[in-house]
Amino acid sequence: MQKLRIANSKPVVFLTGAGISAESHIPTFRGEEGYWTVGSKHYHPTELATRQAFSELPMDVWAWYLFRRTVCRRAEPNPGHLLLARLEKHLGERFLLVTQNVDGLHLRAGNSLEKTYQVHGNIDFMRCWKECCTDLFPIPLEIGDLERGEALSEEQKAILVCPKCQGLARPHVLWFDECYDEQIFRFHSSLKAAMKCGALISIGSSGSTNLPTQMVTQASARGAVVVDINPEGGPYARMAQAGGGFWLREKAGTGLQKVAEGLGLT
Ligand code: NAD
């Protein structure tokens, strides 16, 4: 790859999607493994990951999330995650990571919470469904692991409550029919970072979510170097190439290694 031309003083924003965690064996939303069955009906994740679904079937949606959380807890950070942790140290103040992933693997790999905006939430936390407060609470330890298709026990249901008002708790994720905000999801801070950066590196994202697409569009329009790492083409690859950036048709780990070398990390 041609060496990335990034002014040394400019910030670099890394934007990760489900593709980076595919190498840790966490399914993306695109494959068959994403589907979930409630009764006799099969749901696509984009139908279940909604406020609407939770209001109708709260415990079925919780069961799906707690199964996905189990998959995430059993997964380990892969070389791509570990490289991003090294890049944070290497770039210092110039580094920012904006992730759509809810699996927490970036933090487990060593990226700091301060430099990691989890713009779609974190599956290890819950918050009040009735919004008595905006506090985030760790999912209680007693919940344990849930296997595919397993229903929640009465004991498990009884502890999925907001510790402040004792009402129903919900997973701390951004659902497809909800809007981003600054306080919980760092909406404005992420956009601001995209507007100021010298380079934006997208890794493993299909380009189907709103804030990430705005970030890539803004960075590209302002002349930042946009790089898309994805074995499959998509809107970000097209935007990168149209603006003089790069589409690295690679898996996350190998593509990121090339970017790291381009940024002087050996
Ligand atoms: P997506 O599932 O829509 O697309 C995944 C993308 O990753 C695809 O473009 C695919 O070509 C690419 N990909 C697959 N394997 C890859 C690899 N080894 N290296 C690099 N790229 C690879 O995912 P998305 O666009 O990130 O997001 C949709 C939503 O799904 C997000 O809101 C996210 O929160 C959620 N999600 C999160 C997780 C997670 O936390 N790990 C997993 C699944 C979905």
Give an overview in words.
This protein has 12 helices and 11 strands. It is of the alpha/beta class and 266 residues long. It has helices at 18-22, 45-48, 51-56, 58-74, 79-91, 105-109, 154-159, 182-185, 187-196, 210-221, 235-242, 252-262; strands spanning 12-16, 36-38, 41-43, 95-99, 116-118, 121-128, 137-138, 169-173, 199-203, 225-229, 246-248. The strands form 3 sheets. Strands 5-4-1-9-10-11 form a 6-stranded parallel sheet, sandwiched between helices. It has 2 domains: 1-25 and 77-120 and 180-266, TPP-binding domain (Rossmann fold), CATH 3.40.50; 27-74 and 123-173, SIR2/SIRT2 'Small Domain' (2-Layer Sandwich), CATH 3.30.1600.10. Helices cover 38% and strands 18% of the residues. Nicotinamide-adenine-dinucleotide binds at residues 17-19, 21-23, 26, 28-30, 100-103, 120, 204-206, 208-209, 229-232, 234, 251-252.
Briefly, what is this?
The chain is an alpha/beta fold and 266 residues long. The protein has helices spanning 18-22, 45-48, 51-56, 58-74, 79-91, 105-109, 154-159, 182-185, 187-196, 210-221, 235-242, 252-262; strands spanning 12-16, 36-38, 41-43, 95-99, 116-118, 121-128, 137-138, 169-173, 199-203, 225-229, 246-248.
